């Protein structure tokens, strides 16, 4: 009997624009509520279609504010798990018997902020979090070091009701080391919530994550937002969220420019079949890799 898990990815756009960097607490909550309402509706729709695990895009409660350097955005960070977004999603998970991966801006304390994804089990239990490890600071429009401290929790995996999952966030996908660590830590499905625009790195979108899936013998769910975001207009977030299998083949993909819930069934038995064919874990030579971490 196949060991299938029905999974969903949500790609959306932010509907509320800011003006000339004018960011107030009232506006931040308005944006968060708008995004929460939208995503809770997607969770409900996913629940009606028997989705068991769902993941949202990077910093799903707002726009990709890293397009500017404005300290007012610090006020949008929330505690995990005690902030309102995670607590609301715990209720939604419980109501829909669904595992939810919740990528938000995390406040550890005043002045210490992370780009984080909380993982909630199907009964609403908070299982833990992953903090984005690799932080870009690239012109134009990706000023992430202004907002995020590099993650300090390593590459954890989470044994949920339906599968053991891991999270790798956006820019992390350019680094194979953490992707391998997630496999070694038992991940069956790795989710990569992202915010990436058309241009320089777009061709890598369909290369890197299927390569991680094939090299490590697990499924990957890659999520990207859609549309453009004012006032920055740094480019088009091109959607194209997808799932790929342990062979590195894309098996389901969303549209480029529409808000969408992408659903597919992942047969976890494929992991064993692939790993029995490609013995990458058996044939690793970690004793020869020491120089990789000396520099």
How would you sum up this structure in a few lines?
The chain is an alpha/beta fold and 295 residues long.
What does this protein structure show overall?
The protein is an alpha/beta fold and 295 residues long. It has one domain (4-283): Nitrilase/N-carbamoyl-D-aminoacid amidohydrolase, CATH 3.60.110. The chain is 23% helix and 27% strand. A 6-stranded mixed β-sheet has the order 5-4-3-2-1-16. Strands 8-9-10-11-14-15 form a 6-stranded mixed β-sheet, with helices on one face. β2 (53-55), α2 and β3 form a beta-alpha-beta unit. α1 (25-48) packs parallel to α2 (84-96). The longest helix has 24 residues, at 25-48. The radius of gyration is 18 Å and the shape is globular.
